[in-house]
Structure formats: C-alpha cells, structure tokens
Amino acid sequence: MRETVVIRPTSATLGAGVTRWLVATDSAGAQLSNTAVQWTSSDVSVASVGPDGLARGWRPGTVTMTAQRGSAHAFATLAVEPLVLAQISPGGIHTCALTQHGEPLCWGAGDGRLGDSSTAPRYVPARVATPLTFAMVAAGDGSHSCGLVAGSGAAYCWGIDGMDNVINPGPDNTGSIPAAVPGGLQFKTIAVGYWHACGLTADGAAYCWGRNDYGQLGVESTGETCNTAHLPCSHMPVRVAGGLSFTSITAGGAHSCALTADGTAYCWGYNGTGELGTGTTDPSAANATPQPVQGGLHFAAISAGAQHTCGLNTTGTAYCWGAGESGQLGVSFGAICPSSGCTSTTPVAVSGGLTFSTIQAGLGFTCALTADGSAYCWGMNDVGQLGDGTATSRATPAAVSGGLHFITMSAKWHGCGTTNDGSAYCWGRNDYGQLGDDHITSDPHEIFSVPRRVGGTPP
Predict the structure, then answer these.
(1) Cβ partners under 8 Å of residue 72, min gap 6
(2) β-strands 11-15, 72-81: how paired?
(3) Which of 99, 136, 330, 417 could potentially form a cystine with 406 if both were Cys, beta carbons 3.0 to 4.6 Å apart?
C-alpha cells in the first residue's frame, strides 16, 4: 500500500516566540505517530519544528514545513509575524493572552490548563488548540482557563475544572482543548476564579458554574455534587439568585462580586475573612445570595482576589476589604496582627492618596494602574509579585520598577501588563514558566521582582 501523509493545518500564522502544533495524518485523517514522520523546516531561523510536530516561531518571515513519511511528503506554509498582545490574564501558575487578531495563547504549567492538546508545561506562549478567535480570555487561579468567542459570545473553557474533571481530553486523550460551556448562553464578559467561573449575558444576567461549596455560584443548591469529595457544584451555568442586573462581574478564590449600573457592589460566597464586605466574617452568613457591600460607596470597577476584594469609586479612589495580613488592603495593621486577624469586613481606603483607572486583586496582593498607565502594587511580596525590585511586603502602593506604562494589567498569583505597542511584561513567581520569558528555575529562592518581557513581544 502506498504511503501517504497530510499536514494540518496546511497554512497558519504564528507569532514570534509562540509555539503551535502541526499534525501529520494519513489520507483517511488518522494521526500518525511521531516515529512515523520526519519533520523539517525550510528556514530554522524563522521557525523550527520538533520531532513531535511542535513548531516555534523565531523571527518574522515565511517558511515551508515538511512532513515526510517514507517516500511521501506533505507541505505546510507557516508565516511568522511579530507577536502583539491585546490582552493578558495571569492565573495561578499559568498565564493566557490574546493577540491583536484574537488568537488565544497560554503558557506556564501544563496539565491541560494551556489548552494546547498537551499536558506539558510551556515557557513561552503556546497557541491554544482551536481555530476560534476570542474577544477575551481569563486564566483561573486553579487548573483551567476560559474565553469568549469573538462575535458570538459563546464561552469555551479548557483544563481541569472545579469538579476534578478534564474539560476536554481531545481526540488523542493526551491533554485538554477548548470545549463549549454547556447551556448555549452568550456572554459579554467572563471571569474565572479558583474552582468556579462566572459570566454576564448582554442583559446583565449573572451565571456561574463550577464548585459551590461556599455558595460562590450565587445559589443555595444546584442539586448536584461532584468529584471524589462529593462537593456541591454545577456543570451547567446557573442563574445567580436575586434577579439583579449587573454591568461587571469578578470571581475570586471562593467568592464572587458584581456591580450594578449605579455602581452598587454585591458579593456572595465564602466570607471567612470578610471578603464579601458585609460587616461580618461569618462564613455561613447568607453567602449564596448576593449581598450589598456595606459603606454606601458606588464603584466603577471591582476585583475579587483569593481572600480579599478591591474596588475603585467613580473618582478613582481605591478601597479594599477582607484579609489584610500581608498589606493587600493597602492599610497597615501594625507589625503584629490583632486577634481579629488583620481583616476589614467593610471597605477601607487604600493609603497613599493615589487615584487609579484599573485595579486587580490577587493572591495576597493588589495591583492598580494610574491614568497614565503607571503600575503600583501592594501586599505580599515574597516572590517579587509587587514588581518593585524587592521581596519586601508593603501596605502602601509601591511603583512597579522599570518606568513602564501599561494599557492593560492583571494580577492573580503574579502580575502582568501590556503596553501600547503590544509588548507584554510579567513579574513575580516563575516556577512553572508563567512569566513567559523562556526562563525556568528550580531554585525556590529565585524571584523575579521586576517586569520581564514575554518572549516574542516587541522589545
């Protein structure tokens, strides 16, 4: 029988510094093993390809990739262009981003959370295994990521969800690729927490899915339990109780918050450290129904962290509430935490007198941008997540080193931002390559306390 080989895709665009898979099949569409195919690139200085079909762009240009199976050859054209990022979303130990064309990329720890049909980690951006383009992407604190399809607003997720399920094992069962969120809803925005996710429809209705052991889905019960611990959960998006309409939504460690059109903040879920802002730390106090944040403030933005929450009022003044033991609320509780546990159950103004246009609450720290794009962070700094060139935790906003000006910025377990030329920078923890600069270290004491440019983006 005559040997045949086909490459899929036959043509593709790749950002400099980005990896993506090329797949060799026979004429019937069955994927060929790595040992059955030899891969070559016409110019390895533009783009290279490994024995497993993983291509990587190096510099702008066009190459021909060849797959050889015996006497049979197949060809694919790969165009490499400068990598320009329009959005970046750090998660726990991985990061995701969108290119200027809406192509989703992820890097860092593997286990399916990168969506590239592999369980391997990636130290530079890797193309998510989907032909879809996205309007936004969100990396979770845990092991999954989600995005919204450009135009339709359909939600797709990949990785290991809050019910310990591989969201989509893929055709070869080796890793995860994006799968449509069940229910057919269309969202205008999406947020991913540790083990749950939430979205808003065009009319402002809030839906959440995933784990619900603390009411973080905004409902008392879904009638469903998942994983080996039989925790409350929902595989299907469920409407948040209360019938409110929201303009923005955020998902934290085990709580969620949202804003109404008049800037009133509501939160629900875990409240053991006051992250709901309701004046109590009782974790069982009406968690599953949205509760108004106390203090009568009206917010223009809100962000839920692991165990604290922050918001900006209409003049850009920052307020935070919840756990504050590392200074993440932007106020000092003194050298020794009081018996109450360094928490604030209602919003407190961040010290320093700065005003901001964007704020992001992460794991024990907070970052924000001023109107000119200058980044400031405060809170825990044991792995350089404040980006100020030190490992000193701070209760007052500290300027991120380097004098960079960002147009987007986000923070989860590390911080990242994009500049107006499409460059991207990340700082903080990098034990899984989540900073995306092709550097990995096994030294737990090595920190990255200044912004490092994501590989492939403009210098």
Answers:
(1) 2, 3, 4, 5
(2) parallel
(3) 417
Q: pLDDT digits over 88-113, tens only?
A: 999 999 999 999 999 999 999 988 99
pTM over 0.90: yes
Question: Using 50, 70 and 90 to split pLDDT, how confident is the model at 284?
Answer: low
Helix or strand (DSSP H, E) at 194: none
DSSP per-residue codes, 85-145: EEEEEE-SSEEEEEETT--EEEEE--TTTT-SS--S-EEEEEE-S-S--EEEEEE-SSSEE
For 410-422, b where at least 16 C-beta lie within 10 A, e where not — what string?
Answer: bbbbbbbbbbeeb
Q: Is 244 helix (H, G, I), strand (E, B) or coil?
A: coil
Measured distance CA(274)–CA(341) in Å, rounded: 10
Indicate the residue type of 108.
Answer: G
Rg of the chain on CA atoms, in Å: 22
Q: What letter does residue 355 receive in the DSSP assignment? A: B
Q: Exposed (0-12), middle (13-18) or buried (19+): which is 208, by Cβ within 10 Å? A: buried
> Phi then psi for 34, rounded to 5 degrees?
-60, -35
Residue 214: DSSP 8-state: T
